Amino acid sequence: MRGKSAVLGLLLVSTIVATTPGAAVAEQSGSWTVTGKCKRLIVRNEKLTEACTGEVTQIRNADGTVTFRFSDGRNWLLFRGKQASIRLLRGYKTVIDLDGVAFGKIGAEPLFQELASAACNYAAPYRGEAYISCSAILNFQMWAATIETDGRLPIPDNEYIPPTLSAP
Fold this sequence. Notes:
Layout: H1 2-16, E1 28-43, E2 46-47, E3 55-61, E4 65-71, E5 75-82, E6 87-89, E7 93-105, E8 113-114, E9 118-123, E10 131-138, E11 141-149
């Protein structure tokens, strides 16, 4: 039964994973946005948590790139990875390895800096409250964001897949 739950969880995760706001370069194939309480927003060791909007968007592009976008209201903090690096941890948490981070004005084309080792992790926002957290260290500087979702369904909710639990 656990195998079925893990497979179902992986299927759920693979259907909600997403990519970059630079959709002019790559065709966007899906996205979701959730809101909640901002627990941390750090850019180059500067704490911007007070200015954080509490919203996170995950965008999936057709080229397999996945981007998480956090905001302070004027700028985006973007974390980028590849859909192929996504894995399920302990049957409920999704982890994606990151290969880039960017920070810049909303609407401007992001200029990503390459990362060697960084990750985002999150529980499925389709099942209620969840933490979505990304962190990276680049040139001895911390880049991090964590949102505690409000438990409401992601927007657009047309991507909603009702959770199913297998019988014990």
